[in-house]
UniProtKB/TrEMBL annotation:
Xref: SMART domains: AAA
Full protein name: ABC transporter ATP-binding protein
Subcellular location per the Swiss-Prot or TrEMBL entry: Cell membrane
Pfam families to which the protein is assigned, alphabetical: ABC_membrane, ABC_tran
GO MF annotation, one: ATP hydrolysis activity
Amino acid sequence: MISEKENYSIRKAVKRFYQLVSLERKEIGFVYFYAIISGFILLSLPLGIQAITNLLFGATVSTSLIVLIGVVVLGVLFTGILQVAQMRVIERIQQRIFTRLTFAYAYRIPKISLISIDDYYLPELVNRFFDTANLQKGFSKLLLDFPAASIQILFGLILLCFYHPVFIVFALIVCSLVYMIFYFTSAKGFKTSMVESDYKYDVAHWLEEVSRAIKTFKFHQHNELHLEKTDKLVSGYLSSRTSHFMVLILQYRVLIIFKVLITAAMLIIGSYLFIEQQINLGQFIASEIIIITILNSIEKLIVNLEVVYDVLTALEKLNKVLDKPQDESADLVLNQNIPKKLGVSIKANDLSFAYPNKRPIIKNVNFEIKEGEKVCITGLEGTGKSTLLKLLAGIYPDFSGNILFNGLAIKMVPKKILYQNIATLFADDELFSGTLLENITIGNKNVNFNDLDLVCKIVGLEEFITGQQQGYQLHLDPQGKKQSYNTVQKILLARCLVNKPSLLLVEDTWGGIEPSIRKQIISYLTNENQQFTLLVVTNDEDFISKCNKKLYLDNEIFKTSTI
Ligand SMILES: Nc1ncnc2c1ncn2[C@@H]1O[C@H](COP(=O)(O)OP(=O)(O)OP(=O)(O)O)[C@@H](O)[C@H]1O
């Protein structure tokens, strides 16, 4: 927890923002087009009012007066129509942001290199997806308010310069002040916003942990650990939020001072120019309306800075998952060496591996396994049996030495081919929320129901399935919550077998299964007629006795022996 706080760079965040903007270039072009047109129309209003004022001094209802009033009213109507068009574009952008991010997450999550997230709890990391809503809302607010406000400022200043040269000085002061407010406060504003968001996720993570381990906390609620930790995290959140708020307040204060000064200066200058008859009354009123419009637009920009921070922060957070390194994909495709439905021969040469910042777990391991051999991995607790299995599954590619499958280095085998031919069952594997069929086949459309029934019979699921009204369509809860532990293990094993792998890498998690079914599973897995190669982590003597070979792992020793 509170692991993320790092050096946040607004430059990197702005770069990401531009990447997003460039994806929506065309639509944003439309938004600006609408903003320019409506900016023109809005500014024509003071000009129209100026002309109407001058005409009114004539105290007659002339045709020009009626036409002018008509033009001004039409201007207001047309601006409204443009705003609706703008809203449609923004809705489309919002929908695309959601769709694009959702698929980016769904596509990339299974490809994330597992070692890169060794220090994270992935479901917690994926909470960042909720920042999609902040991005959608913030991005559209920026698109609606920013272009309109910036164009109004620009046009307003240009127009003012035509009234009197003194307004040019005003334009320069406005531009440099807006720039300075952005320049001096944005980096701090962004950093405080990121830290605030980090704390928000830490709080959410802690609440999720309490929920995940609800039974533990239920029985220990009198110790109040759940409240103490929450208190600590919420304090962190509140102080980081206050720091962020202070930046926003500072920006707003500067704005108020700026507004007061400009309003006073402009009224004085305007009145002076009018008295000196350098501008007439119509021009005076029009110039004051333009100045008020400009000030309102500047206020909009400053107030929206909060949204800018929200958008930049949301983008950074969303990319926390998307930036994680992906599994490397080997270029060399020599899949003829890894035949489907046949066993795989395995050779390990001087294999060593250490988890990041840990001492080596696997040290100079050498062994050879022939195609179709059934091999058990045994040894003391924590000696690296599961780790060895994971290395063979290609999950951790950063080992030294070599692993050869059918004589081909594992690193040269494209992940797709590797994963299609290997089936794994690790002790920490889980079911997901979906039907029994989905949990067994994981969407493999080539599985036929005869094979499925056969596999379910072997693992002892037959009775369970026939006892369900919905059969294979039975809905399973996340982690198989409402099923017995042994049923979950049987489903996980069925998942391995149904794809007819060439290599089966499994941990013996069936200790509690009734003896007759356990025996049936062991005989099936170790049957010489089965073409797959089997590596099973077990310390069960019966299972070991049925295997052809034993790999023994001790802290300093690695032994292979034939059984
Ligand atoms: N993802 C990981 N990141 C860091 N260290 C890990 C990770 N997984 C395992 N370890 C460490 O590696 C060592 C070997 O763990 P491993 O699970 O491979 O041993 P094992 O022989 O299968 O243990 P057991 O018999 O208790 O299941 C342990 O000290 C463990 O703490």
